[in-house]
Design brief:
Structural class of chain A: alpha/beta
Oligomer: heterodimer
Order of helices and strands of chain B: HHHHHHHHHH
Shape of chain B: elongated
Number of strands of chain B: 0
Radius of gyration of chain B: 18 Å
Number of helices of chain B: 10
Largest interface: A-B, 15 and 22 residues
Low-confidence stretches of chain A: none
Number of helices of chain A: 12
Mean pLDDT of chain A: 94
Distance between the termini of chain B: 41 Å
Chain lengths: 296, 199
């Protein structure tokens, strides 16, 4: 028998639904799981049918932030639907940062929350909650968690109810700029392929959980590979202000890499900065990669 | 911290003796043999601890940096205002200059004046890292608490340490009419006023 799942959207931009459609293993997953309702996939129920729906389900997927009043789905209060369905579900999977912690929408309306957390504060004690934050969550993260649950396995979770296998790495792991990070060579300009983005460009990869630099997006690239700093979209503080600027206090980054004490970091950076590594300080491709055309 | 071993203890004795002799006779006038003689040990034995005078010179600067760094770390750990921390750092620096003048003397007259000795093995901040790291933490926390103005680290560092080094240098040259302690309060006030937040 197929696993029964239901995908309900709170205050959402649809981003995680779209991300999920990019899951490479979607066809295989759909052979194991039936979405009784999904906003984009063909499904047995319409949104209007959920008010009278009384069956038990295996997985309730929530996408988008939770709003307690004045937000309708299928002409019914979303929060009532959510309250009813969460009691029927064996697991609740919050996909995206909004469903996990409140996310972008919470910036506009402070009362919005995630399913079990408001930013980093726990607001409900769900034993069956799995947070899969991201903006959007990587297709592989959503797909692999659902696949695991279909197999009757439960992922090990971290202190924010996130699967540890995905989120206990930092995005920094796998970044191709790590050599520049080690020797403290900054990337002075946005979009550059060389230099580290942590010192000036606001990169949050050293303290953001996620394996996106290991599994890549569409198997091809990642933000930091393309010259864009990590914006910390899997963390409860997302989105922070001044995303493209590193906050410093007298030149010292305001946030340290995850788990690294300030003294240890400063000692190591002091030593690294004492040496100038020519190979990293001089452009590897002074003329550019080779296909730049002069603007007419 | 664990108790130093006998060998480590002996190493410290050698460094303390070397600093005293360098301060009295001048760095270039003192030989490894002079240091060994002062310690009643053979030159060969001293080389078991330091392979050359240059190696000793580099280790000395790290040793001094660690002594000062440990004292500033204690101040950094105190739950007091940045203004008070400034005064305590000035006190530590001047007390060290009074009680163990050979430490500051070596820093100012050997390390800063003869970079050629330190160019390999003491690049950049390597040998002064324990001291500079604590000063960085002091500044970072002062700015984080909005007590100090955010600015380039080295402009603030130069203002603070250059000022203290300059005063000790003047004292060493016999140009100050008063004891260093006499100036602690007013110098601390000046440093605070120069660095404090404008809010």
């Amino acid at each position: 028998m197929k696993t029964k799942a239901l995908w309900l959207q709170g205050v959402s931009c649809n981003g995680n639904s779209h991300s999920f459609l990019n899951y490479e293993g979607l066809r295989e997953l759909l052979s194991k799981v039936e979405f009784l309702y999904h906003p984009l996939l063909p499904s047995r129920l319409r949104i209007e049918d959920l008010a009278d729906f009384t069956e038990d389900i295996d997985i309730l997927v929530i996408e988008g932030a939770i709003k307690k009043e004045g937000f309708l789905r299928g002409k019914k209060e979303f929060f009532r639907l959510f309250q009813k369905l969460k009691k029927k579900a064996k697991y609740i999977v919050a996909v995206g940062n909004c469903a996990s912690f409140g996310g972008v929408f919470k910036e506009y309306e402070a009362d919005l929350t995630g399913v079990g957390y408001s930013k980093g504060e726990k607001i409900a004690d769900f034993e069956n909650l799995i947070n899969v934050p991201g903006c959007p969550a990587h297709p592989e993260w959503i797909g692999s968690v659902l696949s695991l649950l279909c197999e009757g396995c439960e992922p090990e979770l971290d202190e924010l109810s996130r699967p540890a296998e995905i989120y206990s790495y930092t995005v920094h792991a796998g970044c191709l700029r790590n050599e520049y990070f080690e020797w403290k060579v900054d990337s002075a300009t946005f979009g550059s392929k060389e230099g580290c983005l942590f010192y000036q460009q606001g990169c949050q990869a050293p303290y953001t959980g996620g394996n996106c630099n290991k599994i890549l997006w569409n198997g091809v690239s990642s933000k930091t590979r393309a010259g864009m700093p990590c914006i910390g979209c899997t963390e409860p503080g997302f989105p922070s202000r001044d995303l493209f600027k590193t906050k410093t206090y007298m030149g010292i980054p305001a946030r340290m890499p995850k788990g690294v004490p300030k003294r240890a970091y400063l000692t190591l950076t002091g030593v690294a900065k004492s040496f100038k590594i020519d190979r990293l300080n001089n452009p590897l491709m002074p003329k550019g990669p080779g296909c730049e055309k002069e603007e007419s | 911290m664990s108790k130093p071993t006998k060998k480590e203890q002996r190493k410290i004795e050698i460094m303390d003796t070397a600093l005293r002799l360098f301060s009295k006779e001048g760095f270039f006038a003192v030989t490894i043999a002079d240091i060994a003689k002062e310690l009643n040990m053979s030159v060969g034995n001293l080389y078991n601890y330091f392979s050359s005078k240059e190696a000793l010179a580099k280790e000395l600067i790290f040793y001094i940096s660690k002594i000062l760094g440990t004292k500033i770390r204690e101040i950094n750990m105190m739950d007091i205002k940045t203004k008070e921390k400034i005064e305590k750092i000035v006190e530590v620096y001047f007390n060290t200059a009074i009680e163990r003048p050979e430490l500051i003397d070596y820093f100012l007259r050997v390390y800063l004046s003869h970079k050629e000795i330190f160019k390999e093995g003491c690049e950049g901040m390597i040998c002064v890292s324990p001291f500079v790291t604590e000063i960085m933490i002091f500044f970072e926390e002062g700015v984080r608490n909005s007590e100090l103005r955010d600015q380039d680290f080295f402009t603030a560092f130069g203002l603070f340490m250059g000022y203290l080094g300059g005063m000790v240098y003047l004292k060493g040259e016999g140009m100050l009419p008063n004891d260093l302690k006499f100036y602690t309060r007013s110098i601390s006030e000046n440093i605070y006023r120069a660095l404090k937040s404008e809010d």
